[in-house]
Design brief:
Blueprint (H helix, E strand, L loop, with lengths): L11 E3 L5 E3 L8 E6 L6 H19 L2 E6 L4 H10 L7 E2 L4 H6 L4 E3 L13 E3 L2 E5 L5 E6 L9 H14 L12
Parallel strand pairs: 3-4, 4-5
Antiparallel strand pairs: 1-2, 3-8, 6-7, 8-9
Length: about 180
């Protein structure tokens, strides 16, 4: 389990149109929001990423970079980017499942073709949403076992406004005896 205020795993991946993404080299004032998604086969992911795309300017106004990540290869990632008519969200691809596990993501096995007729990969990671500080420590994290009921980006933007205004620290950091 990743812990708030502790360093996250590294993350270096190719992107569709922005060279190599390296979390350690991100320079945004307040950090980076990383949205791990299931892949092209997931219709819920497409809807979710379309909403994320709309919020990229909101995050940027608050000094936060954004990126969507999956274990899909370049071709399927490009197809997802095209499907949501992307015009500003960075997409990274080729996430290894071992790296997904380092981030605490759940791994699922294929059930064949999805409701939209696209074959699931043999193995793929389930969704996760993280905000990582410029020091590469975890500020916010949410992982899911299924594609349903994900955090809303509008709520994360509002939470950032509160956190910025109140210098609110990352929570959930305690690891002592209970």
């Amino acid at each position: 389990m990743l812990l708030p205020r502790q360093k996250t795993p590294g993350l270096t991946l190719p992107t569709l149109d922005h060279g190599t993404f390296d979390l350690a080299a991100e320079t945004a004032e307040r950090g980076t929001v990383i949205c791990f998604y299931r892949g092209l086969h997931c219709p819920i992911c497409a809807t979710y990423l379309a909403e994320f795309k709309k919020r990229v300017p909101d995050f940027a106004e608050r000094g936060v970079n954004t990126i969507a990540v999956s274990s899909d290869g370049e071709e399927r990632t490009r197809a997802m980017s095209d499907k949501i008519e992307n015009d500003g969200l960075r997409f990274a691809y080729n996430l290894t499942l071992s790296k997904a596990r380092e981030w605490g993501l759940y791994i699922s096995t294929s059930r064949g073709k999805t409701s939209i007729g696209i074959e699931e990969p043999a193995l793929f990671s389930e969704p996760g949403l993280f905000m990582v500080t410029p020091e590469q420590t975890l500020y916010y994290g949410s992982v899911q076992t299924m594609p349903f009921v994900r955090p809303h980006f509008s709520e994360l933007v509002s939470a950032l406004d509160f956190a910025i205004a109140n210098n609110y620290p990352a929570r959930g950091e305690y690891v002592g005896a209970v």
